[in-house]
Amino acid sequence: MRSLLLTLTLVLLAPLASRAQTAVIVTTTPVPLDTASASRSTIGKLRYLGGHHLVSDNPNFSGISGATMVGPDELMAITDRGHWLRIKLLLDKGRVTGVAGADLNPMRRGDGEPLAWPWSDAEEVVRFGDQLIVSFEQHHRLWRYPLGTMVDARPTPLPIPPALQRADHNHGAEAMVVLGDHLLVVREWAGPDGRYPGWRIGPIGKAAAPSFEELTYTTDEGLRPTAMVKHGRHIYVLERRYFEKADRTVARLVRFPAKAAIKGATITTTELARFGGTVT
Fold it and tell me: Which of 16, 140, 207, 272 is the most buried (most CB within 10 A)?
């Protein structure tokens, strides 16, 4: 079993909606903000509301690369092995206290067959109405799936910018967020000038082909944009950098006004918090 320190085991009694779904047994362990100071509750401009370490015996329960809320207490995640992971959350006054259930099912191609490497490298997922849009690396693409049980969901391709199509295998779109009827996509790999290319793609809810409005995302210290979410008038971005020789990762959370994501823009951000060392 993958678990290291088990404090609570939740056995999933049934799939969420269909007999074809595969329920998984998940173990959750609460984690502090700072392992060196269990009582610490703030970092930068943020207050820590809680976190959990999730583990499972299922060999496909790994490499969770993106997630989005699909209900008041339901999280839909994807893995870089090409699986859907739906998690039913336990909530107490808005805070996550554990997991009430989950199912894990393969993502599928247009012909209904499960994805296989290198087509299975799913990186990010966002909700667009009654659909889920997934970005993939290796073979760079955006696929749109109908939101449902996801057991038999089949995708419809979305057009992507030619520059993204030509990107190296692991240098695709890891940061993505919905802005109205457009999709903001930023590559995780900088160009020769050290800036990250991005696009406003849309409108994505119309029959007509979307346009690709170029913009630039800026960062420093070698940090890469790996996830985005919109809340209120701002877009929040998780940036990360991995130091291979030291085998350590540093990260920070930044934000910028959503209205700044327009054609030709150079986006700069404001740092809210930085993570590393003993900080989760």
Answer: 140
Enter the pTM of the model: 0.89
- Sequence-distant (6+) residues with CB within 8 A of 6 are 27, 29, 55
Among 28, 24, 130, smallest CA distance to 86 is for 24
pLDDT category of residue 2 using cuts at 50, 70 and 90? very low
Cβ atoms 122, 173 nearer than 8 A: no
pLDDT average, residue stretch 203-231: 92
Alpha carbon distance 190, 196 (integer Å)? 4
Report how far Cα 67 is from the mean position of its chain's Cα atoms.
Answer: 4
Cis peptide before 118 (omega within 30 of 0): yes
Quick check: bond before 203 cis, omega within 30?
yes
Average pLDDT value over all residues in the chain:
89
